Amino acid sequence: MTNDTAQPVTNEKARIGAPGQAIVGMNEEGENLSTDNVSTEQHGAKAHSHGGGAGVSDSSRAGRLTSYNLSDFPALTGREEDWRFTPLNRLAGLHTDELTGPAPTVQVEKPDAVRVETVGRDDARIGVAAIPDDRVSASAWASFKEATVVTIPSELEVDSEITVTLTGAGMDPAASHVLIQAEKFSRSVVVLDHRGSAVVAENVEMDIQDGAQLTVVSIQDWDDETVHASAQQAKIGRDAKLKHVIVSLGGDVVRVTPSSRFAGPGGDVEMFGLYFADAGQHFEQRLFVDHAVPNCKSRVSYKGALQGQDARTVWVGDVLIRKEAEGTDTYEVNRNLVLSDGARADSVPNLEIETGLIEGAGHASTTGRFDDEQLFYLQSRGIPEDVARRLVVRGFLNEIIQQIRVPALEERLQAAVERELEAGDY
Amino acid sequence: MSTLEIRDLHVSIETEQGTKQILKGVNLTVNTGETHAIMGPNGSGKSTLASTIAGHPRYNVDSGSITLDGDDVLAMTVDQRARAGLFLAMQYPVEVPGVTMTNFLRTAKTAIDGEAPKLRTWTKDVKAAMAQLRIEEDFASRNVNEGFSGGEKKRIEILQMELFKPRFAILDETDSGLDVDALKVVSEGVNRAQGAGNMGTLLITHYTRILRYIKPDFVHVFIDGRVAEEGGPELADRLEDEGYDRFDASDAVTA
Ligand SMILES: Nc1ncnc2c1ncn2[C@@H]1O[C@H](COP(=O)(O)OP(=O)(O)OP(=O)(O)O)[C@@H](O)[C@H]1O
Ligand SMILES: [Mg+2]
C-alpha cells in the first residue's frame, strides 16, 4: 500500500519550525502559542479537509492538523482516519471529558548525573519537541498540571538505565506530561514503566539533540481496566540517534502514537514495538516517521501476538519522505501472529514519497496465523503441540525483545510473554 | 530388531476439486539395518507416503495400516510418532522464524529422549555432527531453516537424523538440490547412521545418483500411488538406463 501523493503539500516547512518556537508564546493555560504556527497548521489541514473526518484512508500525513490548542480539534466522531479503529466508547471519557483526575505518580531511578525535575506548565522547555496532532493529545496538553523533565547533560554517557515509573492514580480521566531531553552527544537509556489503574492521556516529548544517542523503552504493563492514550513525539537532531521501543502488555485500551521527526541531516531512528493482546484487549499503535531533512535513516519493526476472543490490535505506520529529504533510507515492517480464533489484527503500512532521490524505501506487513506447517515440522521432531506453540511465539516476539539490549528488561519482558502464554487457553 | 510395516495403505486428500486418491494400496516392510530405496516419477505419491507415515494432517488414511513393531502408528499424534522413533527428512523443510537452531535441537532432543541431554556432551555432539556435515558453526544461532539454501536445509535435516537417532528414517528427496560434494557429505551422514546398525532407512528419490553413495538393499518402484515393481539394487541400474517409461501408469492402476 504505497500512497501516491499527488496532492500538493504546502506548509511542511512552516510546520517543521513550529514546536520550538511555539513554547515562547504559550500562556499559563497552555492554550495559546505563536499564532503563526497554529494558523499555518490550520491552513495545512484545510488543504486536505476533504480527507478529514470522512474516514478517507489516503489523505496525506503531511496535512494532519497539529496544534497546542484543544479547540482547534473538532470533537471526535470515530470516522476520522486516525480514530477509525479506536473504540471511542471504551475511551472512558479521554476524548470528551476534562482531564482533571490525579495524574499517575512518578518515581525515578537514575544515576546522579542525570537531572530530573518536576516543572509547571510554564517551563520554557515544554513543547520543545512535540506538538499535539490529535484531539486527545491536545486535551492532555491543555490539562496537565506538572511535567516531569529528564535531562541527560551534554556528553554524559550513562551506563545504567534511567527508569521512570508512572503508576496510575485512579480511574478519573487524567493528563500526564514527560519530557526527555538528551543533550548533545549524550548517551542514555530511559525506561517509561506504566503500571496500575488509570484513565490517562499522556504526552511524551523526546528531544534528541545533535549527536546524542537515546533509547526510550515505553512499557504499558497496566492493570486490566486501564485506558491509556500516549503520544510520544521525538525531535531528532543532526547526527542524533533514537531507538524507541514500545511494549504493550496490559490494559483495556492502549493507544500509542509514536512519531519521529528529523530536524537535522544524518539522523537515525529505530522504532520497535511489541504487543500481546489477550481476549477483549484493544492495543493500537500508530507511528509516524517524518523525513523532513536529507540523509536520515529510519527502521521500523513492530510485532504483535493476539490470542483470545476479541483480542484486537491495530498498527498503522505512516512514513513520509518530503521533497527535501533526499538520501532518505527507510524501511518499516509489521508482523502479527494470530494464535486463536476471534482475534483480529489490522496492519496498515503507509509510505508517502515526494522525492525520487532516496537511498531506499520499503515496507512489509504480514498477519499470519500460527502456521500449520511450522507446527507440523516441530511436532515431527517430537515436540508436543503446546511446547511447539510456545517455542514459536517466544521466538517471534524475542526478535523484538532482543533489540532492547537492557538485560534486566529483556528478562522481565520474556517473563511477561511467558505469563501471557500461560494465560492462553490453548 | 524393529519393523515398520505398511499394509494396503490408501490415502486421499481434499482438494478444491474434491477428494483425490493418491495412495492406492501400498505394501512395504522395512526392518532396522535395511535400506530401501523408493523411486518413482513426479507426482507418483512418494512424498504422500512419507508425510502420511509422519502424520501430516492433510492426508486422510482411508484404509490400510502402518505399524511399528505391531504398534498402531496411525493412532499416534505427530509428536508421538517422532518419539516412537520415526524421523522424516522433508523434501521441503519448513522455516521457523524466531526459533534458533540451538534451541530447536535441544528442545526436540529433550522431547524425543524424555529428558534433557547433558549440556556439555550435547554441545560437543552438535558441534561434531555439524562439522562432519560441513555446516558452518554460525548456523547454530540462526533461526530454523530461515534463509538457508536448499542444500543447507537438506544437511540440517540429516544433522537432526544423526542427533535424534531414530529407528526409522524416511528421507524424502534429500538428494535433490545438492551438488556432488554436498551429496557425498550427506550420504556419508546417512551411512554413518545406518552403519550403527539400529536404523532402517526409506530413501525416497527421483534419481539414481544418490544410490552410488548409499547402497540400497531393496528398490521399490512407485507408480501412481502404489509399488509397481520391487527388486534388489540391480533394479536401480535398470531404471538408470531405461527411466520410468516402461511403467505405464494405466497398467499400474488396473493391476
Ligand atoms: N496438498 C495437495 N494439494 C493438491 N494435490 C496434492 C497435494 N499434495 C499432493 N498432491 C498431489 O498428489 C500427487 C502425489 O504427490 P506427491 O507429492 O506425493 O508426489 P511425489 O511422488 O512426491 O512427487 P515429486 O517427485 O514431485 O516429489 C500429485 O498428483 C500431487 O499433485
Ligand atoms: Mg515428493
Shape of chain B: globular
Kindly name the structural category of chain B. Answer: alpha/beta
Instruction: Please state the CA-atom Rg of chain B, rounded to the nearest Å.
Output: 18 Å
β-strand amount of chain A:
35-45%
The helix-strand sequence of chain A is: EHHHEEHEEEEEEEEEEEEEEEEHHH
Helicity level of chain B: 25-40%
Main sheet attributes: strand count, strand direction, barrel closure of chain B: 6 strands, mixed
Task: Give the mean pLDDT of chain B.
Answer: 93
- Count the beta strands of chain B: 12
Q: What oligomeric state do these chains adopt?
A: heterodimer
The pair of chains with the biggest contact is:
A-B, 24 and 31 residues
Instruction: State mean pLDDT of chain A (0 to 100 scale).
Output: 86
Strand order of the largest sheet of chain B: 6-9-10-3-11-12
Task: Describe the model.
The complex is a heterodimer of chains A (426) and B (255). Chain A is an alpha/beta fold and 426 residues long. Chain A has one domain (23-423). Chain A is 18% helix and 39% strand. A ten-stranded mixed β-sheet of chain A has the order 1-18-16-14-12-10-8-6-4-3, covered by helices on one side. In chain A, strands 2-5-7-9-11-13-15-17-19 form a nine-stranded mixed β-sheet, with helices on one face. In chain A, α5 (372-379) crosses α6 (385-404) and α6 (385-404) runs antiparallel to α7. The longest helix of chain A has 20 residues, at 385-404. The radius of gyration of chain A is 21 Å and the shape is globular. The mean pLDDT of chain B is 93. A six-stranded mixed β-sheet of chain B has the order 6-9-10-3-11-12, with helices on both faces. A four-stranded antiparallel β-sheet of chain B has the order 2-1-4-5, covered by helices on one side. In chain B, strands 7-8 form a two-stranded antiparallel sheet. Chain B has eight helices and twelve strands. Helix content of chain B is 35%, strand content 30%. Chain B is globular, with a radius of gyration of 18 Å. Chain B is α/β, with parallel strands linked by helices and 255 residues long. Chain B has one domain (3-242): 3-Layer(aba) Sandwich (Rossmann fold), CATH 3.40.50.300. Classes of the chains: A alpha/beta (426), B alpha/beta (255). At the A-B interface, α5 and α6 of A face α2, β7, α3 and β8 of B. Bound molecules: adenosine-5'-triphosphate and magnesium ion.
